[in-house]
Amino acid sequence: MFLACLAIAQPKQTIKGTVTDAATLQPVIGATVTIESVDPVRGTTTDVDGKFSINMLPLGRHTVRVSYLGYADYVNDEVVLNSAKTATLNIQLAEAAYNASEDEIVVYANRKSSTPLNSLSVVSTRAFSVEETQRYAATVNDPGRMAQGLAGVQASQDNNNDIVVRGNSPLGVLWRVEGADIVNPNHFARVGSSGGGITIFSASLLGQSDFSTGAFAAEYGNALSSVFDIRFRPGNNEKREHTIRAGMLGLDFATEGPIKKGRSSYLVNYRYSTLGILNDLGFRLVGERVDNNFQDLSFNLVFPSKNNKRTFTVFGLGGLSDELEEPVQDTALWNGPLDYTQAIFNTKTGAIGATFTQLLNEK
Questions:
Q1: What is the mean pLDDT of residues 289-293?
Q2: Which of the two residues, 247 and 13, has the higher pLDDT score?
Q3: Do the bridges between strand 60-67 and strand 105-107 make them parallel or antiparallel, or are there none, so unpaired?
Q4: Which residues pair with 241 in a beta bridge?
Q5: What pLDDT is recorded for position 113?
Q6: H or E segment to which residue 100 belongs
């Protein structure tokens, strides 16, 4: 009955964002933005700051196309609108190369949402979005598990998110957040590894990010197997939004909004594991003698200048994870050392950083 009432209400939502030049990061003024998944097609153009907003769109999956003379079209068919929050896109257009002769004009293919953000990663690299981490089977919003479904990648075992790329060791995976190399950002991470149980940053913070399986750009000098180049999205700088999720992975609390309306923004996410709650209730899913629990906190603060020529950001992530395996209480059932010993495994991981971007001129 309640679902029927909600269906009749048919709530609407907004897609907004910014369109910039991929090379210079300057705003693209007057670019055409269309939503091709609705009938009739909805559209608008970007303003002097490269910003756009299209309101009153139905919930669901939408296809967004951005076009501008001299640039290859950008197409994203994975924009998911839900009733909880506005969809915010940061779109970069690449200049199109034309080959003109007397009887033909050839333009390079459209720029898709899977096109790498790093312009120097020309092969064996693809961009991925938070929607992909939610849509692939058994990914539980984890980029590491999402990558296991890509070509040339396989899992090492089911109970962790280690990945093997073309036979290379999972120890050679490089994790990078907002341009900074970081240590293993996973709960239940093992010493010397690059994986664990689940990543410590929630999908609520993920922006468009890159995954590379080879032919690495020079800036990924420490990579031997693959690269996760993770980007955090900025928070909503127009209105405050709060999201609560309850799922298989845990309880997820996210809040975002403007620090100064129309300019700076914050985005904070806290997560507490479902396993910890079930353990307290007497349900042990990992093993009859095993208690698992984790929690994490991530944030991203963005401070652009009035003229959008300078941007200062502060980001951070941290996670705690605990695993306790108790001995068998009945001594008559002891068959080996694992039966009468207690195993305690704790991990703590954290990183904090800042970025400053200065656009010198239009070039």
A1: 84
A2: 13
A3: unpaired
A4: 256
A5: 66
A6: strand 98-100
Give the number of other CB atoms < 10 A from CB of residue 213.
21
CA 39 and chain centroid, separation = 30
Q: How many other C-beta atoms are found inside a 10 Å radius of the C-beta of residue 218? A: 6
**Residue bearing the bigger pLDDT, 275 or 35:** 35
The rounded mean pLDDT for the chain is: 85
Residue 357: half-sphere exposure toward Cβ, Cα within 13 Å: 16
Q: Which long-range contacts (CB under 8 A, 24 or more apart) does 281-288 make?
A: 287/325
**Amino acid letter for position 239:** K
pLDDT score of 6 more than 60 = no
Q: Decide: helix, strand or coil at residue 143.
A: helix
CA gap 244, 42 in Å, rounded: 30
Q: Is the pLDDT of residue 129 over 80?
A: no
Tokens 């992530």 correspond to what residue?
A: 317
Alpha-helical (H) ranges within the chain are 2-9, 130-135, 143-147, 274-280, 337-340
**How many residues does the structure list for the chain?**
363
Whether 70 and 49 have beta carbons less than 8 Å apart is answered as no
Q: Which pair of tokens denotes residue 95?
A: 């200049």
**Nearest Cα to 303, choosing from 311, 295, 315?**
311
CA distances from 142 to 128, 269, 296 (A): 12, 15, 14
Share of the chain above pLDDT 70, in %: 93
Q: What is the Cβ-side half-sphere exposure of residue 265, based on CA atoms within 13 angstroms?
A: 20
Can you spell out the DSSP letters for 320-348?
EEEEEEPPPS-GGG--SHHHH--EEEEEE
Eight-state DSSP code of residue 206: B
Place of tokens 């609390």: 253
pLDDT band at 130 (very low <50, low <70, confident <90, very high): confident
* 90-104, 139-153, 279-293, 301-315: range with highest mean pLDDT: 301-315
* The pLDDT of residue 11: 78
Question: What distance in Å separates the CA atoms of residue 303 and residue 305, rounded to the nearest whole number?
Answer: 7
Three-state secondary structure call for residue 120: coil
